[in-house]
Each structure stands twice: as C-alpha cells, then as structure tokens.
Amino acid sequence: QVQLVESGGGLVQAGGSLRLSCAASDRAFSRYAMAWFRQAPGAEHEFLAAIFWSGGSTYYADSVKGRFTISRDNAKNTVYLQMNSLEPEDTAVYYCAAQSRFRGISAWPYTRVAQYDYWGQGTQVTVSS
C-alpha cells in the first residue's frame, strides 16, 4: 500500500514559520510531480504549490506566492513546504499529494485535485492572531 505521511504541523503565532514534510513510501514518487493542498473547515481543497519530478519547476497559488516554498529531496522520497509569514487565514489541514503517472508537459502546472492519485492523511496547521 502506497503511503504519504505528512508531519510538521502545529500551532504558531501570526508571522511565524513552519516546515511541513511529506514522506512517500514508494521510491517511484520521485519520478512524478507532487503538491501541497489545504482544506479549511467548510471549504474545498485549495491548491497551494506543486513541484515537478526533478524539482526544477515549481508553481504557487497567488495566496501563498512569496511566503511558501515547495522543495523535494528525491533521495529521501520527501517533499517539503516551508511556510513563512503565516497568517490566521492559513489555518487549515494541509495535505500532500502525488501523481502515479506522468500527466504530460502541456498540463503543467498541475493544480487540480483530480490530477493527483495519492493523498496523505493531512496535518493541522493553526495560526493564532
């Protein structure tokens, strides 16, 4: 069973930082794009950032551009989300997602939930004002 396990969430004050990690159980994930989404109570999944398999291309939602940084270490089968200048509006459950096959260059950036095949269990991030 393929698994994605997130860690690094928690409670932080506004203006603070957190670094989320997502470890994949299958080395095959290093060949495909991965992403971070979040879901606030009562809301749908919101795309945050995606990274191509090589790490050479990244894409961010406007809401986090300049504050969040996605990166990956394929040797460790892990993707990261560095979150700086956190705001109360960033409070949500954060999920990492991975593809299980190449979706084509023309479809990049991969920002839709349906473009990902595997999801982690989520990690709570709470930002206090």
Overview of the structural elements:
The protein has 129 residues and is mainly β. The protein is built from no helices and eleven strands. It has strands spanning 4-7, 10-13, 18-24, 34-39, 46-51, 58-60, 68-73, 78-83, 92-98, 118-119, 123-128. Strands 2, 4, 5, 6, 9, 10 and 11 form a seven-stranded mixed beta sheet that branches. The chain is globular. The relative contact order is 0.30.
Q: How many strand units?
A: 11
* Unreliably modeled segments: none
Strand content: 35-45%
Helix content: under 10%
Alpha-carbon distance between the two ends: 40 Å
Helix/strand order, N-terminal first: EEEEEEEEEEE
Main beta sheet strand tally, sense and closure: 7 strands, mixed
Helical segment count: 0
From the alpha-carbon coordinates, what is the Rg to the nearest angstrom?
14 Å
Characterize the overall form: globular
